[in-house]
Amino acid sequence: MPRIKEVLNEIGESQESLAKEIGISQSSVNHYANGNRMPSYQMAWNIVKALNNLGASCTFEQVFPSPTK
Length: 69
Description:
- The chain is an all-alpha fold.
- The protein has a single domain, classed as 434 Repressor (Amino-terminal Domain), CATH 1.10.260.
- It is 61% helix and 0% strand.
- The longest helix has 13 residues, at 41-53.
- The protein is globular, with a radius of gyration of 11 Å.
- InterPro entries: Cro/C1-type_HTH, Lambda_DNA-bd_dom_sf.
- Pfam families: HTH_3.
- GO terms for molecular function: DNA binding.
């Protein structure tokens, strides 16, 4: 399950601010954060980049851990 919510909480940002940074709707971010939808590979990278732009210091693997671990 993605750790989008946890990272946002750590940096004190909202799903809305992440959505604006990426250029997608807040509801899309919510679906990704809750695991209701899986983002494409490119969108996942965009999410990680946006989280880092908002003040996080995270890697792809930290936000989207391997489902086999």
